């Protein structure tokens, strides 16, 4: 996968996992919409924590998942607090925004029966965390020092979250005897690529390039 020059290196496994780089048009839109970028970023952190906690409540018999998701939820809530603090310092009021099509565009393809459901949810989680990590990285060279420093810390943490989600998907697929997850990963990557590259009417942290 080709990608723009990054100020914060991404793990090779993450680069290989994502199906495409963030379009340059999205980066340009993000730099011109700091308010929306930060508000939606905060919402994404809150949603990520909620996703992790939902998994903890639904799959109470999976100790590895409980441990990883508990750690992830705490970290995502800390990030939420940090983004809200940055917003307050910049005079940006936190408010509700309509969700982008991105996460729902992936989750609508999650299977409804187990073990496929859990495996798919974990693959989608890995994609969302990997894309978030990549977007932080491509923005860093263009940001003011305070925001760039913060996003550098997020590149590292989101990279770990991607690894945790993918490792759990691989583990549970193997334990359930359903074979490698390569085909499901490829399917969701194709969906993700379409969502990332197709024009979007609204700018959001995970949106595609702006529609003309």
TrEMBL record:
Record InterPro entries: Ferritin-like (IPR012347), Ferritin-like_SF (IPR009078), tRNA-Hydrxlase_MiaE (IPR010386)
Q: Extract the GO molecular function terms from the UniProt entry.
A: tRNA 2-(methylsulfanyl)-N(6)-isopentenyladenosine(37) hydroxylase activity
Under which name does UniProt file this protein? tRNA hydroxylase
Which species is listed as the source? Halotalea alkalilenta
The record ties this protein, via CDD domains, to: MiaE (cd07910)
What biological-process GO terms show up in the record?
Answer: tRNA modification
